[in-house]
Amino acid sequence: MSSTQSSADSTSSSITNDPAYQGYVDPDWPNPGGEGDARIIIYGYVPSIAVCSLGIVLFFGAFVFHTWRLKRHRIWYFSTVLVATFMEILGYIFRTLSSRKDPYAVSYFVAQYFLIVVAPVLLSAAIYTIVSALIDAYGREYAPLSPKLVLWGFVACDIIATIIQITGAGLVGSAYSNLKDPNVPNKILLAGLAFQVFTFALFLLVLMIVLWKGRSSPVKVSKAFLTSTVIATLAIYLRTVFRLAETAQGLEASISTHEVYFGCLEFAPIVIGVYLLAIWYPGEYLQHKNSTKHSAEKRSGVSV
């Protein structure tokens, strides 16, 4: 065994024996002990190459699907889904690097966390645009908020929550790398997630009100489209609640140290969401509703 590897093993042993900084060290993967390596594997496990590969393949497929849809329907406000799927691809590439190259590297952990956390925010923004367009189609009287307030108000909330989360995640990685207490930055991360869960719950309430009141609107929208939008929205919300529960339980607790939770409650819901948004694409169900409504208003002399 080389002196570098012996030193890395000694470092790993010292941190895992310190009750203040316990964490996961793979017995079959000695810590390289490089400048950018944490003393432990921050994930709590070595990421599965199967999950990483499946993520790259499925999100690449979704990227191609949404690109075709966007080119056909030219709903440019929905292009945030393209950015989201591309970010997911990059996120799983960085997880692959962790899985195959160096699971202790802080840079890989922070990069994949940033990409996989921000991508669903862009999906949320796409859903906000759907609800805004839905309000335009039904009529302002069928919604508790204006279309612009629904879109930009909730987008602003997501931006604030994401900035707090990324700051907290970066500080957690830095704390592990420098043998400092990670619990304080974890609370920053928790605050960002709690704020996001709260504001998204408010959005769900707005969505339910719009759907309920919209039943009496003369404009009718496909029930299959509305159902798929609701399921995609709930899938994204489930993923956000999972992240909150994971962070609230703690850095070394069961949720954060078992990848099965990540696979079922982070990876799977987002895959379901992006494919539902591609199959029941808003360009097929909302664009003509708005144009028909505006044409009718012009014919009747109502200003648009």
Automatic annotation (TrEMBL):
Residues 1-16 have a biased composition (Low complexity). This is Uncharacterized protein. GO terms for cellular component: membrane. Keywords: Membrane, Transmembrane, Transmembrane helix. It comes from Gomphillus americanus. Its main location: membrane. The chain crosses the membrane at residues 40-63, 75-94, 114-137, 149-176, 188-212, 224-240, 260-281. It is found in: Membrane. Residues 1-22 are annotated as: Disordered. It is a multi-pass membrane protein.
